[in-house]
C-alpha cells in the first residue's frame, strides 16, 4: 500500500473522482480511497483486463479483488468483517498531462460490491416511501 507513491502519480492540481459515490479527492486526500480499501481488504489489488490509450486519456477495464478482513462502515453502523471475497467490476479513466494524472475518474460496480458484502437493497422501504404523496406529506 504505497499511498505516497499513488499520490505522487498526480499533477499538483490533480483530482481523483469516485464517480459512483459522488466523491472527489485532491492534495493529501488523493490517497484516502487507497487507505479505506486497504483497511477493508489488506490483500486488495486491481486485476487489469484491458487498457487503452487515446491521446492523453487512458481507459482501463479491471476488477478490484480482495478479502474483507476489516470493518465496513455504513450509515446504519459497522458491518463486521466476515472474510467475503470481493471481485468488483470497475472502469477507470485517467486524463494525463505532462506525465502526471490530472483527473482520475473511477467507476466502481458498487451494487456488486455491496452484494458481495451481504448488503441487499431494501425494496420494501422504497415502495412504502414512494406511496407518500410529496405534495401532502408534512
Describe the structure.
The protein has 138 residues and is of the alpha+beta class. Helices cover 22% and strands 45% of the residues. The chain contains four helices and eight strands, in the order αββαββββββαα. The protein has helices at residues 3-8, 32-40, 110-116, 123-130, and strands at residues 10-18, 23-26, 45-54, 57-67, 72-74, 77-79, 85-97, 100-108. It has a six-stranded mixed β-sheet. Strand 5 (72-74) and strand 6 form a beta hairpin. The relative contact order is 0.17.
Comma- or semicolon-separated keywords:
six-stranded mixed beta sheet; 138 residues; alpha+beta; two-stranded antiparallel sheet
Q: Strand order, main sheet: write it out.
A: 2-1-8-7-4-3
Percentage of residues in strands: 35-45%
Which regions have little confidence, pLDDT < 50, spanning 5+ residues? Answer: none
Order of helices and strands: HEEHEEEEEEHH
Shape: globular
The proportion of residues forming helix, as a percent range, comes to: 10-25%
Q: What's the tally of helices? A: 4
**Total strand segments:** 8
The SS-based structural class is: alpha+beta
Determine the N-to-C terminus distance.
Answer: 49 Å
Report the average pLDDT across residues: 93
Query: Largest sheet, described in full?
Result: 6 strands, mixed
What is Rg?
A: 18 Å
